[in-house]
Amino acid sequence: MDILVSLADGMLQALQPFNLGLAFLGVVVGLFVGAMPGLGSVNGVAILLPFTFVIQDISGSATSPMIFLAAIYYGAMYGGAISSITLGIPGASTAVATTFDGRPLALAGKADKALVTAAIASFIGGTVANLLFTGFAPALASIALDFGNPEVFALMLLAFATFVGLGGDDIPKTIFSICFGLVLATVGFDIISGEPRLIFFEITGFSHGIRFLVLAIGVYGIGEMLWTINAAKDNTAMTETKMSPKTILREIRAFPAAWKGTAIGSTLGFFVGILPAAGATPGSLMAYGVAKMVSRRPERFGKGEVDGVAAPESANNAASTGAMLPMMTLGIPGSPTTAVLLAGMVIWGLQPGPLLFTEQPDFVWPLIGSFYISNVIALVVNLAFIPVFLWMLRMPFTILAPLIFVLSIVGTYAAYQNMFDVWLMVLFGLGAYLLRVLDYPLAPAVLAVVLGPIAEPKLRQSLLLSDGDFSIFFTRPIAGPITVIAIILILLPLAKLLWSKARR
Amino acid sequence: MFAAKFGRNALLGLAALAVTTAAGGAQAFEPTKPIDFVIMAGKGGGADKMARLMQSIVEKEGLSSRPLVPTNKPGGTGAEALVHMNSANDPNHTIMVTLNSFFTTPLRQPGLKVDILKFAPVGRMAEDTFLLWVHKDTGITTFEQFLAEAKKRGKKWVMGGTGKNSEDNIITDHLNNAYGLKIKYIPYKGGGAVAKDLAGQQITSSVNNPSEALGFYEAGSVIPLVAFTDERLPMFPDVPTLKEKGGNFSYFMQRAVVGAPGMSKDALAYYTALFTKVYNSKAWQTYKSKKSLMGDFLAGAPLKSYWGVQRERHTKILKASGAIK
Question: What ipTM was predicted for this assembly?
Fold first, then answer.
């Protein structure tokens, strides 16, 4: 009951006109930076951090600036889906998985369905995560503490397994794609040894590693786009989408069809989010993989399945709420954006950590209250703007395609202010087109570039702990079962293959 | 604002005029565009938090007519940032927040061709401190107990730290060498992750900065045993220094702002004045005492000679550990 009283109190605080205004402003800013390719919540939050001092001066508390920044964070999670669906370029790294099915839906003239599904799934994911956060924050923080290096590695292995163990795709090609991504993930300075690796031609640009967004924008903005141009040369418009409030209402009513993906995304996303080091991008990719695995029609994934939009979208929102948990209760960021939020909390004079909930309830509860409210605002704003997004799609293809190329280049530059990354992005785009023509799946490579840099140090730290003994992944109470499940999932398709050969 | 409307040459002329006419009195250099504020570490770490605090103080108090624009360059333990500074197009608008990798990275990678004594000594904002932390459930409360237990466990005693050949690694090496221990060192990406893994007992000890371990310390899950400082820290009056325990070792991390090589004298004077104001601000002083930072403001020649001493010392340390020849 205490929790409910505190929450109600906090919501009242968050509903005060000043805070409500900040939440609204934050959501709109977030939607914009999220929808802009290359800019994500981390850029929005980092750029606006200095201005929060002014907000703090006006309101006299640290809660208001945090409400503002948190609203940007959520808004960006909604916004990322918009360009993933309408343009086919992931608006932010967290929305890459949304392109897998969002884009095919848009190409099939169902962009309205994809956008509505994304918005509602985001809302449900965020709200489920909020409820879990409100009810169990301290207990969940202790779970995060139990996840040491072997546990996180086991989880990463499970994520890879969900992508390999999917029926339907060409398994050898999937494995090739994952390995290719893993190689790219090792470029740059190694954390464990501090030594440079795979610095091709001694170009200094490689020293910071292959940035995930560079690959993602290249693959989807350039590679897939070239493929689409090739496939649809005769069509003048990218898609025929009629828009009216009626169709949007119809899609809202049709949303329950995506319940499975939403349920998976909401819970899985949240739990991945609360683990430090993970964050919303791995969360959404894993949710996509699992949703495909448990689906009754996995073969439709990647061709425009609503569950394939609902799962990553609910997951990235749930994970972004989840990532707040280790940030607030342990003082450790679970994602790049929460790292900046954490810096903000320090600047505003707060001490994030185990005592924050007991010592700063005046900060914590209005903030949690605002999580609920920002989610409602984001849903309403998003649904209201869907006709505008659809209008973009009705542009002639001859205008839209160059626009997407330009956005890809500008977006890559905006993200890193570095021409090297822009050229690399173009190179990846051309390479991706080639692989696409040869029918290699690219999503596994993208997944590997996200998870590789998390998994590799964890593997090596674990092996340092055990003096090179791999049994560390099997004997620990949490890591053990996860590793076993992952290995079964990886071997399953192999067993199926052998079995069908033996029957013949 | 007015000056910005003039061309670059006109502005230089104007600046020269200002020097000749108002000798000494007026500020000779004013930034003419946003200032590239490089952070030698990733987002969310100690250096990043500090840099963003400095930026917000400059912003809030209106200390600079042009904004500081922070960019994180964490690659290769600062190598990426050092190379960026070394090849800066406009050294008068390029400054950087440094850690001790400012000393160690050029030593470990001579190929970078970075001479830190060519950097402009803008100002040392603080020296960060290190303490030895263990989890309270180990039952260890003194440094002697730690030595006994670590000796007994040998390679099973695990120290987590930020990066290889880093500050944390140097301290761990010292403990191993001076006390005949075999502590296993596991490099992490950041101090926050180390603190969390100590609280979760995934590792047995850490040498976190106070700012990194504070949350778990206040919650009572980790305890400090010894401080690697010359005197006891005001925030931890009951924690002895290693020197009190008979060790001849102290270690600090510089938190300094440096200018790119080739920065003009006038620009250096401008930035030193700017960061003196930041240093003296209430926000910085509060942060300094709350996070148990030490060190007075140091700039110009004294800061350069401090770098010289530190470079010497790190050469010895890295040679002893075998990281360089």
Answer: 0.80
